[in-house]
Design a protein that fits this description.
Helix content is about 55%, strand content about 10%. It is of the alpha/beta class. The chain folds into two domains: about 5-95, Methyltransferase, Methionine Synthase (B12-binding Domains), Chain A, domain 1 (Orthogonal Bundle); about 100-220, 3-Layer(aba) Sandwich (Rossmann fold). It has a five-stranded parallel β-sheet, with helices on both faces. The protein is globular, with a radius of gyration of 18 Å.
Length: about 220
């Protein structure tokens, strides 16, 4: 198995480094961190490490999640491994001007402090090659609007876990449209439905983290 395939496998299995005990069968063996460093030392193309190693691995993870073969814990381990590799690659990506496929501004709406789902979506988007601007939780309309104005080409992702806070999505979209900002908006979260997305003028809806990537690409015309 070559280095790229090993990186890919470690992302799929969520193995960060040799100190990590997860998964058990890879405990003590090189993980994403060691393998990415080895690939850099061996002058493997940075774009291959990124796309064929890290991003390809997360695509497999997303597919497994959508099929019910992986659950949130497995997704989080894989996302952690992928992010460890991205952190090492980041200086090279900047130096070589390797661009991302798009930008997504993401946040949990005002009044809602839940972030597990939002964080998972952000990780999956990064794993797919997007630049993610994470506004955190309890995010006001003003904060979303400001970020949209600074990043006019970015997609906006709104998350809510509570029925009482999902109405904030309507307010945020209204504020964005009233300001004449043209950023596309997708929404998601436990109480959210495709019907509600259409009702409040969202451009898309994602049922879960794995579908969020496909929806983001679709709305931005990348798929």
């Amino acid at each position: 198995m070559g280095l790229i395939e090993e990186i890919n496998n470690c992302v799929i299995k969520g193995h960060v480094n040799a100190q990590s005990n997860y998964p058990q069968d890879l405990s003590g063996k090189p993980g994403v961190e060691e393998l990415v460093n080895d690939a850099i030392t061996q002058k493997v193309e940075t774009s291959d490490i990124l796309h064929k190693g890290l991003i390809s691995g997360m695509e497999v993870v997303g597919d497994k999640f959508s099929k019910g073969e992986y659950f949130v814990p497995e997704m989080l381990f894989s996302a952690k491994a992928m992010k460890a590799g991205l952190k090492i690659l980041e200086p090279l990506l900047i130096d070589q001007n390797i661009s991302t496929i798009g930008t997504v501004i993401i946040g949990t709406v005002e009044g809602d402090m839940h972030d597990i789902g939002k964080n998972l979506v952000a990780m999956m988007l990064e794993g797919a090659g997007f630049k993610v601007i994470d506004l955190g939780v309890n995010t006001s309309s003003e904060k979303f609007l400001s970020a949209a104005k600074e990043n006019p080409e970015a997609l906006i992702g709104l998350s809510a876990l509570l029925t009482i806070t999902m109405e904030k999505m309507r307010e945020i979209i209204s504020a964005i449209r009233s300001a004449g900002v043209s950023n596309k908006v997708i929404i998601g979260g436990a109480p959210v439905t495709e019907r509600y997305a259409a009702e409040i003028g969202a451009d898309g809806y994602a049922q879960d983290a794995s579908r969020a990537v496909a929806q983001a690409k679709k709305v931005l015309g990348l798929a």
